[in-house]
Each structure stands twice: as structure tokens, then as C-alpha cells.
Amino acid sequence: MIHVRNLSKHFRISTHSSGMAGTLRSLISRQYRTVKAVDNISFDINAGELVGYLGPNGAGKSTTLKMLTGLLVPTTGDISVNGHLPWKTRKRYVARIGAVFGQRTTLWWDLPVIDSLSLLQHIYRIPADTYQRNLAKFTKVLELSPFLDTPVRSLSLGQRMRADIAAALLHDPDILFLDEPTIGLDVVAKERIREFILQVNAERKTTVLLTTHDLTDVERLCDRVMIIDQGKLLFDGQLSQLRARFGGKRELVVDFAERYDSASVVGADLVSLENQRATYQFSRGETTASELIQRISSQYRIRDLEVREPDIETTIRRIYEERLLATE
Q1: Could you give the angle at which helices 157-169 and 128-141 cross, rounded to 10 degrees?
Q2: Domain ranges of the chain
Q3: Which of 10, 166, 167, 258 could form a disulfide with 138 if both were Cys (CB 3.0 to 4.6 A apart)?
Q4: What is the pLDDT of residues 111-142, one digit of tens each?
Q5: Looking at the domain that runs over 39-243, which CATH code has it been given?
Q6: What are the pLDDT digits (tens) for 82-107?
């Protein structure tokens, strides 16, 4: 479906020296520096996958998406998306993809939402029965009815995002590119969009590539993640693998049936003991949750327990701060 090999995108940016002398030198002989926004990355995405593409600001996420959608031409490397070279066969290519960039709308600013959707029907040459079926489906699931007749400029951010996602999927694209689709939204709007993305991926087998800074999006939507930083692809694998390798310590919270003055156990650190609740931390490589539970239950009477995994936000932040992947 998506095949990327040795992909790079470099930008030449002019440099300026301070002061009047520097300004005069820049007028006579301008100096440039090269910024490697994307630096020799390769990956494959199969049909029907829902993949998270993560990285800090300036890592190269949006630049990658712009090359994949045909908005930018790579400096070097090869891209094949559904058999197309995005920037060369753009007219035929965009007829089979959908794209949503969280900061920009594809709808007409002064037109009601329904008029924008109607225009897109004609632009994409969507058959009338397909258009009506999709419009009815999206209106129900995304709750578009209250603002279909409202000009786009008057919509809230959450309403506009829902309308943009509906517009991107009207023509039944094979691939959906999402760049920060939940940015700035409240909790209810975010969850509504996440549920819809999952539904589209499951029911229509639409391939989805998602960039986001909201790691709850990743936990709710993605089994596979790719991590990019400073233009280089650092990790590509299952979310569970990322947690296993870099997630740090797991936690076991135990509610005892009676009060104990001490509740230490071999293979885990006792973080806290308050009333009848103890919290332990343990490393995957040293012991398993089941082994630890057996040890505790052989020494103490247990009423309830819970195993807690490190949250994905902590894991990703640890990778960035400690540059763990760079040393692998």
C-alpha cells in the first residue's frame, strides 16, 4: 500500500548576520544552510493498518505527510502509494486518498457545510447513491445535523474538524492521512472523532496514517507506531514492543484483607504502604506479574489487586529526553 525507501527532504534556508555590516554582506552574497527535515527514512504500511507517526515539534512528521500526499517533492528517495508517485500522478492519486490537517480546513470558508460537501461530490465525481449513503452515515455518526447549514467560518473547532473528516471520506478513499486531527478539541469531541476513525478503519478497511501530540489518540487507535526525531526514523513496531523495551517499571497495586506493618517482597520495590493498600514497582526483565502475585499471596492475605502499565506519554517522553532509541 505505502512503500517508502531512503526518503529525504532538505530545505535551503538563508542565514543573516546581525548589524548593518551583516545586512550589507547578505545583500551582496547571501549565505545558506541546509535543514534536513526528513533524513533517509524507509518504511512500509500495509492495507488496512492504522499507524501512529510520532515525534516532537520539528521532527519531520508533517513534512513526511506532505510528501506522501504529493504536496512536497522529495529531495531524494522513492515513494509509492497504492501504485502512484504522489507528486507525479497527483490528479489520479488524490482521487483515492483523504487528508485532514488539523490547522487547516478543506471546506469553503463562507459556505454552509452542506454546500461544501455537495461541491466535493462533483469534484470527486462521487455517484449520487454513494454520496447520499456516506452523507447519511457521517451525519449520524459524527452528529453533523446541527451545523450542516452553518457557514464554516462560524463553526467551533470541534464542529469544523468533524466536518473536515467527513469531507475527507466522502469519496471512499483507500488511505486517510490525519495530521493532528484532535488538536485543541475538548474531551467529548476527541472521543467522538477517535470512535469514528476506529469505525472507518474496521468497517471500510481504510488505511490510516496518524500524526498526533495527543498520546491518548495513540493508545486508543494504534497498534503500530513509528517514531521520528530530527528527521530520522528511530522506531517502527508494535506499541506493546515499545512499552516492553522502553516503558520502565510496571506497578502492582495490592489491597490486603488486613493491615500489615511491613509488606516487602522479593523482586519488587515497595513504593508505598498506606492503610491496607501497597504499591509495588517491578521490572519486566526481572520478574513477571504472575510470579510477583504468587509471592505476595503466599505471604499476605489479598482482597484485590491491579497491574498498571506505564502510560504511553511517560514512555515517549523518556525516549525523547534520554535519547534511548539513538543508542540502540
Answers
A1: 150
A2: 39-243, 249-309
A3: 166
A4: 999 999 999 999 999 999 999 999 999 999 88
A5: 3.40.50.300
A6: 889 998 888 889 899 999 986 788 89
